[in-house]
């Protein structure tokens, strides 16, 4: 639950987050007179939400896409592994996507901060700061939020030279002096993966190593160093790493670090609406992108660990097509 002050600040800045309203906000929402109804409301207007909107708009469904404009890859300078879009900036891709979706009169895009969602009988009621929207069906394309460590310089480098995915960025930093921030089985698994892109590789455990003796021996055979000293800060220039500084006063030159991070759902709407969440923290869906709540679909980063733009578009398109099919069967 958010405070009144947080709500006002977030709405003013159009932050991309979703939360339960306070009692006073609910009262305000209930007193609203402006209400509109759509076939489908999509919450989240990045790649997956826009793809779902296009599929539904082309199916002659009346669609509303609600988004507040803070995608998780907003610092990433270039997107890769997406045919026809390779090397373009995420902003360039999403701007073109919005323009193309906007060409369909059946789809409306609206900048808004969603403060509540509920199912009332046979429809979903979505509340923003100034409006209430209703729809027969709902798609959650709300994304996830990475939980970053309290290391000075980490957040400034995130998505630029502190990275989460070698398939998105590995080619561009191939053969460079590269680190992996990790420990134990997950750290070992990730550093072994990155060894395909560079032999200049160091594993930073940021504390006492929990690697097994066998794992340490294997890394030694591959000339992969293990540094257990805790990290103080990342020295960088506009997000581009220069050196890594440790708490014992030492430092070393580094050009990039892979740092797979834990995450949380960017929005609590799925839980509010009763959708099942997997043990890994994703919204549970079937192959058609259906959640465990009838009438609600989900797509994009909030349902899968495959965090590529191409996959977000694929799951969004699938959600849109399958939801249209469901509605057509129900109406026929």
Secondary-structure blueprint:
Layout: H1 4-13, H2 23-30, E1 35-43, H3 47-57, E2 63-67, H4 90-102, E3 107-111, E4 116-120, E5 123-127, E6 132-140, E7 144-146, H5 154-157, E8 162-163, H6 166-169, E9 178-181, H7 184-194, E10 201-204, H8 213-221, E11 225-227, E12 231-237, E13 240-246, E14 251-253, E15 256-258, E16 263-265, H9 269-272, E17 296-298, H10 309-331
Parallel strand pairs: 1-2, 1-6, 2-3, 6-17, 8-15, 9-10, 9-15, 10-11
Antiparallel strand pairs: 4-5, 5-6, 7-16, 12-13, 13-14
Helix pairs in contact: 3-4, 3-10
Q: How big is the Rg?
A: 22 Å
Query: What order do the helices and strands follow?
Result: HHEHEHEEEEEHEHEHEHEEEEEEHEH
The number of E-state strands comes to: 17
The description of the largest β-sheet is:
7 strands, mixed
| Helix fraction bin | 25-40%
**Helix segment tally:** 10
| Structural class by secondary-structure content | alpha/beta
Q: How would you explain this protein's 3D organization?
A:
The protein is of the alpha/beta class. The protein is 29% helix and 24% strand. It has helices at residues 4-13, 23-30, 47-57, 90-102, 154-157, 166-169, 184-194, 213-221, 269-272, 309-331, and strands at residues 35-43, 63-67, 107-111, 116-120, 123-127, 132-140, 144-146, 162-163, 178-181, 201-204, 225-227, 231-237, 240-246, 251-253, 256-258, 263-265, 296-298. Strands 1, 2, 3, 4, 5, 6 and 17 form a seven-stranded mixed sheet that branches. The protein has a five-stranded parallel sheet with strand order 8-15-9-10-11. A three-stranded antiparallel sheet has the order 12-13-14. It is elongated, with a radius of gyration of 22 Å.
